Amino acid sequence: MTSLLVTRIGELVTNDPETGEGPLGVVTDAAVIVEHGRVAWVGTAGSAPAADTHYDAGGRAVLPGFVDSHSHLVFAGDRAAEFEARMAGRRYEAGGIRTTVAATRAATDEQLTAGVARLVAEMRRQGTTTVEVKSGYGLTVRDEARSLAVARQFTDETTFLGAHVVPPEHADDPDAYVALVTGPMLEACAPYARWIDVFCEQGAFDADQARRVLAAGAAAGLRPRVHANQLGHGPGVRLACEVGAAAVDHCTFLDDRDVAALRDTGTVATLLPGVEFSTRSPYPDARRLLDAGVTIALASDCNPGSSFTSSMPFCVALAVREMGMTPAEAVWAATAGGARALDRDDVGHLGVGARAALVVLDAPSYRHLAYRPGVPLVVDVVGG
Hints:
The chain has two domains: 3-65 and 348-383, Urease, subunit C, domain 1 (Roll), CATH 2.30.40; 66-341, Metal-dependent hydrolases (TIM Barrel), CATH 3.20.20. It is built from 13 helices and 16 strands. It has helices spanning 80-87, 97-106, 109-125, 141-152, 174-189, 207-219, 236-242, 256-265, 273-279, 286-292, 312-322, 327-341, 368-371; strands at residues 3-13, 26-35, 38-44, 53-56, 61-64, 66-68, 128-131, 133-134, 158-163, 195-200, 223-228, 247-250, 268-271, 296-298, 357-361, 378-383. β2 and β3 (38-44) form a beta hairpin. α7 (236-242) packs parallel to α8 (256-265). The chain is globular. The chain starts with a strand and ends with a strand. The relative contact order is 0.16.
């Protein structure tokens, strides 16, 4: 058995209040023992047991690996021209997704795999050690299935999003496309997916269509999650709560009934500030949700159209600056909150038994993630 002692940690975020101070469970002058890829011991450096090997954190801050619970990494091409036009004043609309669909359909499996590998490596360099990856840029039986097969090479947290938008060939008969999604496409994709998702939004799928998609996915053994309330008020958030979704993502436009449903059901509200940054849209009111007792996750929504960032530290900084979160709340949402959104208890924290995914910052405190936006503070990822 080989054990690793990570020692001389200036500030350790465990997300375990029983281990350290406050909701982040902060331990100062800390150490962690890792065995078999799991956290075996946490405490102060002076009381650490012996280990076979050592890692000296040099007084730096250490926190759990970020859990990015919402990304769209399987795609080809980019939409830089669309972004430039949007910055010149054009409004963001969901229809731009079809541009990426055409490029993705034309790409080879090898090209798609190389693209995901590049983005996953980019994420890890910025401290992301768990990532969810959706399909949704194929929108045919073949292309959705191969997208998920590619994604499955990199993560177990794969999501079937055939119901992203209605593709051009079904524009005149969206219900026929829903039948395809809930029939042959689901059958081909379910072996590669853990989750099923639907974009319940004007311009995408209405509540009845979304309910059919989620019910079919549940019958195939897939857990539900929902894109909702990004572009305006709508039924998606309450639908997600009704069907027992683990998380509902975006949550930009909410009324009091939406907030109450999130609070009462425990459905996680996954906020995606990179989208609002990239589309010049209103940011979600995280403070309102937190004060109501709603659990929040932060995620990148890394995609080529509305949020082409892979940086969870950037999302943390945006959440603090633009959404009313404290640095501690944002760090928790980007780690433990993301784990909740994926219904995982082995990541997002550094309690005993957790997966050993430790992010080392070139900073004395987690607060620097928001305090020094845009600075590449992650100097190492241990384990994960």
